[in-house]
Design a protein that fits this description.
The protein contains 3 helices and 5 strands, in the order αββαβββα. It has about 110 residues and is of the alpha+beta class. It has one domain: Beta Polymerase, domain 2, CATH 3.30.460. A hairpin with a 2-residue loop joins strand 4 and strand 5. The longest helix is centred in the first third of the chain and has 13 residues.
Length: about 110
């Protein structure tokens, strides 16, 4: 049943490719650190993966063979850093990120 006047991009089915990518990552890398996974109708072609710490984020980046040059550190608040990088899996943008102290960001390679 389709709700009348709802654009196709706002239907749950529009999120299916991104949801499948999240499942594909879990199935393909079951030994990697867990993540808080967000997929939203606002960005139906994107998955966000919040990782616990900088070391675990590094583990994911190395497993997916993502170039270190794609990692961005952005200062937030007084002493915290948002570390993030993106990759594309089957046409879906996947953003991996963590929030760490400035000291941890300095100690752990991107």
């Amino acid at each position: 049943m389709r709700i009348q006047n709802t654009p196709a991009t706002e239907l749950f089915g529009a999120q299916l490719p991104a949801l499948c990518v999240a499942v594909q990552l879990a199935a393909g890398y079951p030994e990697l650190p867990g993540a808080y996974v967000v997929q939203s109708r606002i960005y139906p072609d994107q998955v966000d993966m919040q990782i616990q710490n900088a070391s675990d984020l590094l583990t994911w980046r190395q497993a997916l063979r993502v170039d270190e040059a794609t990692v961005a550190d952005s200062p937030i608040q007084q002493s915290d850093v948002l570390r993030e990088w993106r990759t594309t899996v089957d046409g879906t943008s996947v953003r991996f990120y963590t929030i760490v102290s400035a000291a941890e960001a300095e100690a752990v390679p991107a």
